[in-house]
Write a structure and sequence with these properties.
Length: 168
């Protein structure tokens, strides 16, 4: 996979927001938190992830570049909140009451579990499967599992096994 270079000015904006939100949490919780490392290695349609034990935030460089300010306003606090919750409360539900409290009360950001960014540029090839009642889109990973006989997917509506539709 080809590596995407995030412009320095954008990296600086990410760090500025992360430090501002970290300061808010430190003031509110009366505790000094270490600064997490930030990497730009998240792939696929996921905007970001928090690696709790490594104290690291991984960001999707393509989605960051395509959705700069909205990404910084939403994803940075979201992932930082995961780290702070882990530091403060230990292992709890990923988007549970502690996380929602940190997002809304401490970091002053809506507690959205998922992003709404367009993902066409980062989405892998999709394979169309069908059952009795509808068509389904499977990712290349899911499709490869079917081809190798490692998985069989069924429709949640009708319970029928999904069959690959031949491209037309």
């Amino acid at each position: 996979m080809k590596s995407v270079r995030v412009p320095l000015s954008l990296q600086q904006a990410v760090m500025r927001t992360m430090r501002q939100k970290l300061a808010l949490a430190s003031d509110f919780l009366q505790k000094a938190f270490p600064e997490p490392s930030v990497t730009y290695q998240q792939r696929g349609t996921i905007a970001g992830s928090a690696r709790l034990q490594d104290w690291e935030i991984r960001l999707n460089p393509v989605l960051l570049i395509e959705n700069q300010q909205a990404f910084i306003n939403q994803v940075i606090p979201h992932e930082l909140a995961h780290l702070l919750v882990y530091y403060q409360f230990g292992k709890v539900a990923p988007h549970g009451k502690e996380w929602r409290f940190l997002m809304e009360t401490v970091l002053k950001v809506p507690a959205n579990r998922t992003h709404q960014f367009p993902v066409n540029s980062v989405r892998s090839k999709i394979f169309t499967y069908a059952c009795h009642c509808q068509q389904h889109e499977l990712t290349i990973r899911q499709h490869n599992k079917v081809i190798k006989g490692k998985s069989c997917y069924v429709c949640r509506q009708c319970g029928e096994k999904l069959i690959l539709l031949e491209p037309t």
